[in-house]
Amino acid sequence: MKIISSKGQVLEQQAIISNEYTVTFSLGKNDIIGYEDMRIEFIVTYPNGFQEKFPSDNYQKVSISTALGNVEKYAGYIKVEQLTGELKKQLDKFKEETKDNPREGIQNKGEIQTNVGSLNFDSDMLTTGIKKSFIDQSAEESFFSESSIDEKQERIGTLLNLGSNPRELVSFFLDRGVNVKDCGAVGDWNEGTTGTDDSAAFQRAIDRAYELNTFVYIPPSRGYKISNTLITRSGTAFIGQKNYNGVVESKKNKTRIITYTTPVFRINSADINSKPRLILKNIAFTDKTIDGAVLVEYKLESSYIEDNFFYNYLCIINNGTGRLTYIQRNNFLNVRKYALNGDFVDSFILNNYINMSSSISRTAGIYCTNLSMTRITGNFIDFGEIGIRVGTGEASSIMDNIIDYCYRGIYLNAIRGCIIGTNTFNHTTKVYASYDGRVPTPQMITNDWVGIYLDKSITGCTIFRNIGTNTDLVVSLESEGYKNLKIQGNLNADVFNKTIRLNRKSASWFMGDGENLEIEDLSFKPVQTLPSPTLTGSSIVSFDNQVLYINGHMVRNVNGLWRDTNNEAFGFSGPNILPKYSDPNWIISNSATNKIISIDGNEFTFTTTGAYQDSYWSTTCSENEKYLFITDTPSSNNQGNRHLIEVWYYGDASNIKLGQSTLYVNKNERIFITPLGCTKFQIRLRGELPGNTYTYKKSILIKYNEN
């Protein structure tokens, strides 16, 4: 016995069958949290193991009241005593005839499911028994109310007009869905030449379920043959019994549909633009067409495809611009093209197993022509040419998937604002190009296999903590159009220098191409000299398709300057040689006025009384020494006149000036080398014109370190 509130199941316990018609149980104040009207359901297990459920909906209720916020102790029983007359005789007869096999009587004569059991009757009992057996839906009246029957009959018409098959009455009154067997389905197809084609019966069930606003129930069978496309209506639900347990070979006690048509399900043209909803649950599908059928050709909206088993289809879901759809816990086996194909918006694709046909080339487990605000998580995909492919997308996540034996694990194009993380790639290497009967393309034989393949136009995305084992390459940037991209924490478990490859090309069509790229875990290429940095504003560079590795350091380009992983300018290390402006070694011009040095000594402001008045700092040096000068000083003051920062070089004899160079003209950093014979140089701050105020901000001088 189960008790269910509006919030879900709150209690499950054993009930006692004290006699043929009485079930007894008790409720204590600690049994239920909360109070309201509760539904009661009974599940009866027969001696042979067959289970039967008696749903109550609103037919049986227990009201739990309160006292000072606590649930009162409540004990009671439900007792049905009004099975009298001819109906009781028929029930007794039914029980005697089917005592060794409760299902036998059901199969032979039909049934009416009630809250207390399976009531069997012959067709001539309809007029004498059905009126007493109708279950009143009102909680205020007895379960077998004569008055409520009259009211119901007046509202819906004569019961006999519903048909001669008692199953139809069961489906109508108890909201158990429309049973396909009530509509003529047999389910005896043996996948050979014998058995019944149930296409017409399924179509009748679909039409009737739409009229009654209920679902299509498909009981277990040997197999239902479907040879014609089934035209569904929006909201059609197909529910099988329990779980198939993924065993397609088993022909007993499974809800199995064997299809000989394509597509199998298609929406009625009247509903094609009106949020076509579809539910498939607990069903095993097998395709028997030569070329492979399309199971669902739809534009799914607010749909559920869950706990199903699909075998040998060209495409299982061929989706239009669908949205708000859950596809979860399904098994897709021997998929010949796509398990899922089309647009997926505001949807979830979760915890599915997708096995592609390894003998067929150019396959993709999940092919999202458009992926928007959708989550693809926890799926296992193997043997596709591509595991997950996205044609265009935004604001979506592809996470925690396992992809095995795929030439391209995740193939991404034209995406923005997406997260691709914690995916695992295995056997992603051309060693397996012809493995297990696979028909490889020439590219699969000659090119590296890649876990995450970034094609072009990738914006504002994060790619993190993906891992490859037996993998040629974990991440590869292969084309153009990248900005605001962060790639970090990825790992090739076998070969570290084959984690990330940069093979990007510049794109004039893509505004901001190459900006704000932060990429770690890179593949390295040893070089002896530095090329010119090419990606302004980025932390990577493309050079022979590799990031540079020089003298034990990985170097990257930041704002046009090489830096190592500590963000230090490459080749320069050590403390700042240049003292703060408050240091007495700075010689401040006597001619300048309004001289102000900040408290921290990092800023120096003065007003010139003439052109090029200098303040300077001197240090000894040797010839041919390399230095890096960095400053936060802007290119001009607020009057538009230039700040000038120059270096003056001096020789050994009589402090002779050897020359000078401008360190700063519209740049924040400059490298200089001391000339031959130089023993001293000065950093000089010069205002360009008289009568102007200049501010020089924090400056750094670093010496080059060859080690």
Structural overview:
- With 707 residues, the chain is mainly β.
- It contains 7 helices and 65 strands.
- The strands form 11 sheets. It has a 15-stranded parallel sheet that branches.
- The longest helix has 14 residues, at 199-212.
- Helices cover 10% and strands 39% of the residues.
H/I helix tally: 7
What's the average pLDDT?
Answer: 78
**What is the number of E strands?**
65
Q: List low-confidence stretches.
A: 65-87, 101-175, 244-251
Q: State the secondary-structure class.
A: mainly beta
Outline: elongated
How widely separated are the two ends? 79 Å
Biggest β-sheet strands, sense, barrel? 15 strands, parallel
Secondary structure: helix percent: under 10%
Gyration radius, rounded: 39 Å
Percent strand equals 35-45%
Label this structure with key terms:
single chain; 707 residues; 39% strand
Q: What would a concise description of this structure say?
A:
By secondary structure, the protein is mainly beta. 10% of the residues lie in helices and 39% in strands. The N and C termini lie far apart (79 Å).
